[in-house]
Amino acid sequence: MRVSKAQAQANREHIVETASVMFRERGYDGVGVADLMAAAGFTHGGFYKHFGSKADLMAEASANSLAQSTAAAESMSVQDFIDVYVSRDHRDGRSTGCTMAALCGDAARQSGDVKAAFAEGIERTLQTLGEKYPTAADAPQGEGRTRMIDLLARAVGAIMLSRACPDDSALADEILAVCHASMTESLPAIETPEEDTQDS
């Protein structure tokens, strides 16, 4: 039976979404094409109707999940981001959590297409949250972005270190607690014009 173009596109999107979850849970090398297609509800042979190679799917799935993370960050303040990201819930929710924390180590060993997907996702996250980083009115141009790069690197590193510890390890929780407190304390308290008026 011939599949319509609309159905073929829906099938492709379903495969990409399934892959993005499985890659975050198991890593790129921990997911085979046969297992992936079975999890998505399709036959192994159907894979190559949609993708030229597993590497092509890795890049597309990574771009997809990174875009979802960026979209979620659009409604967050920088403090909200810290609270959600550097948390036990995120640490334990590997398959649905941030692709950067789950796969940055793997991506460093992958093709240029996968790295490009990560670079674009990281850039979008920095743009989204860098614009919200609390800075003084007279702060140098680009200071929010610079500080957000530092904060994002610490947030991703905190989750990666915590996940490297046993699930019930006190150290896993300590890493998150220390990093969360440090990042929160690093956020500058910027007075609003209203506050300035009240103080005068």
Characterization of this structure:
This protein is 68% helix and 0% strand. By secondary structure, it is mostly helical. It has a single domain (5-188), classed as Tetracycline Repressor, domain 2. The protein is globular, with a radius of gyration of 20 Å. The model is unreliable at 191-198 (pLDDT under 50). This is TetR family transcriptional regulator. Keywords: DNA-binding, Transcription, Transcription regulation.
Concise overview:
By secondary structure, the protein is an all-alpha fold. The chain has a single domain (5-188), classed as Tetracycline Repressor, domain 2, CATH 1.10.357.10. Helix content is 68%, strand content 0%.
Highlighted features:
200 residues; mainly alpha; Tetracycline Repressor, domain 2; 10 helices; 0% strand; globular; TetR family transcriptional regulator; Tet_transcr_reg_TetR-rel_C_sf
Write the layout of secondary structure elements.
Blueprint: H1 5-26, H2 33-40, H3 54-73, H4 78-85, H5 88-92, H6 99-107, H7 112-130, H8 143-164, H9 170-186, H10 193-199
Domain HTH tetR-type: 9-69
Keywords: DNA-binding, Transcription, Transcription regulation
Protein name: TetR family transcriptional regulator
